[in-house]
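Lecture notes, part 5. Sequence design as translation. It can be helpful to think of inverse folding as translation between two languages: the language of shapes and the language of residues. The source text, in structure tokens, appears below.
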């Protein structure tokens, strides 16, 4: 029935199927839909109009490829040509609209290698992209298999899905080892923890480095899986790798205040300024205080990190110490030990202060990663964890709108950086 719909309309309107700009004529589409409705044929689903159109397009493209390969059209074989058409074989391919059975033409000597649907290919590219997209959003292989079966009526095993996602590993390795810019205005570093089953399930850190380029773009520099808890020693390894990949200078590194991290940063980039995230410092302060005092402490510390100058911040902190020092001496010691890495942003203009006082820039990336990781529970090995995180990172901004907002947000700050750091950013523009 569906074949009749296609053949009737295509034969009657063959000359109108394509406009000069290559777009299918709307009249043909209207006729196809109209005849399908008359004969009770659905648009989607098994035997639907879209499936039959896909079948027709694929088979026509394959016939065209075989014609190019043989050098003559169907029924126009020249006597001197030895190779010839040799029937076809049935093959089912999984497409975005579900499984579609097609007839793949063959040649006599077996030299024909189709490109539109390659030999042994059972899925069109869009299906692979769909699987990768679903995986990046945190769906497990079982969830993806169930989704494809429910929505498209396609049976795709978890092994096949794993094979599809494993193809990103080579691209991930190339991405991880790509050359980097010679200078970045700001690099944000942080780590998240994932559960990996290595003998027994344990938390493992995934180190993330995000940079702002001299043009105001976001650039995630890499992902690294560490052992045990987050440590400054491993961060030294990460930063050294970044330098070996071409990063010779960084104006500021914004981090969470991990002990020993400023020293590791100074060894790799001696001129870099280490800035501790104010939000992390506040959260650390709350760990030493009773819950009922959190709001009061936050209000009392606000004049410290919003002060106009370093000297004013010191005065406000002394006032805070007089009020809360006796009750919470550990908070005072925490701020005193972190003071050298807390105050750098206070010497800059408001444009720079706003974007470097916290690690919010990288926290938004971490939130997407955690969403994908949380759905998995735990991973069988380190590579599986990195693959999941990599897919989540690669799907951060599918429309490009986030990139535009990011660049606009950093425009004023980068102008201030250019002045404040005496032209060090100009190296990255050469």
């Amino acid at each position: 029935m569906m074949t009749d719909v296609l053949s009737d309309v295509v034969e009657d309107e063959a000359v109108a199927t394509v406009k000069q700009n290559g777009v299918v004529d709307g009249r043909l589409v209207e006729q196809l839909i109209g005849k399908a409705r008359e004969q009770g044929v659905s648009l989607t689903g098994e035997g639907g109009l879209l499936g039959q159109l896909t079948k027709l397009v694929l088979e026509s493209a394959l016939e065209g490829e075989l014609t190019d390969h043989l050098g003559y059209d169907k029924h126009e074989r020249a006597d001197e040509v030895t190779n010839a058409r040799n029937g076809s074989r049935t093959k089912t391919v999984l497409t975005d609209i579900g499984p579609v059975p097609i007839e793949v033409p063959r040649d006599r000597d077996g030299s024909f290698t189709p490109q539109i649907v390659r030999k042994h290919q059972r899925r069109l590219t869009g299906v692979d992209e769909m699987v990768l997209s679903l995986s990046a959003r945190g769906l497990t292989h079982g969830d993806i298999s169930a989704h494809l079966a429910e929505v498209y009526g396609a049976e795709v095993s978890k092994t096949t899905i794993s094979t599809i996602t494993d193809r990103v590993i080579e691209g991930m390795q190339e991405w991880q080892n790509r050359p980097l810019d010679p200078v970045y205005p700001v690099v944000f570093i942080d780590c998240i923890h994932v559960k990996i089953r290595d003998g027994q399930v344990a938390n493992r850190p995934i180190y993330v480095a995000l940079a702002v380029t001299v043009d105001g773009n976001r650039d995630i520099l890499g992902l690294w899986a560490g052992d045990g808890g987050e440590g400054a020693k491993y961060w030294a390894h990460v930063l050294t790798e970044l330098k070996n990949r071409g990063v010779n200078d960084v104006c500021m590194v914004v981090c969470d205040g991990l002990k020993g991290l400023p020293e590791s940063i100074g060894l790799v980039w001696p001129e870099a300024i280490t800035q501790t995230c104010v939000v992390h410092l506040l959260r650390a302060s709350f760990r030493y205080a009773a819950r009922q005092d959190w709001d009061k402490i936050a209000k009392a510390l606000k004049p410290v990190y919003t002060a106009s100058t370093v000297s004013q911040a010191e005065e406000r902190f002394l006032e805070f110490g007089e009020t809360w020092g006796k009750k919470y001496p550990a908070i005072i010691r925490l701020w005193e030990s972190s003071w050298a890495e807390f105050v750098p942003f206070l010497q800059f203009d408001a444009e720079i202060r706003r974007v470097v006082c916290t690690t919010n820039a990288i926290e938004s990336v971490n939130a997407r990663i955690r969403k994908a990781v949380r759905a998995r529970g735990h991973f069988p090995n380190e590579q599986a964890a990195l693959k999941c995180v990599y897919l989540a990172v690669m799907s951060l901004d599918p429309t490009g709108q986030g990139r535009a907002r990011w660049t606009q947000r950093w425009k004023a700050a980068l102008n201030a950086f250019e002045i404040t750091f005496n032209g060090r950013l100009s190296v990255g523009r050469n």
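The translated text above is only one of many valid answers, since several sequences can fold into similar shapes. The chain has 17 helices and seven strands.
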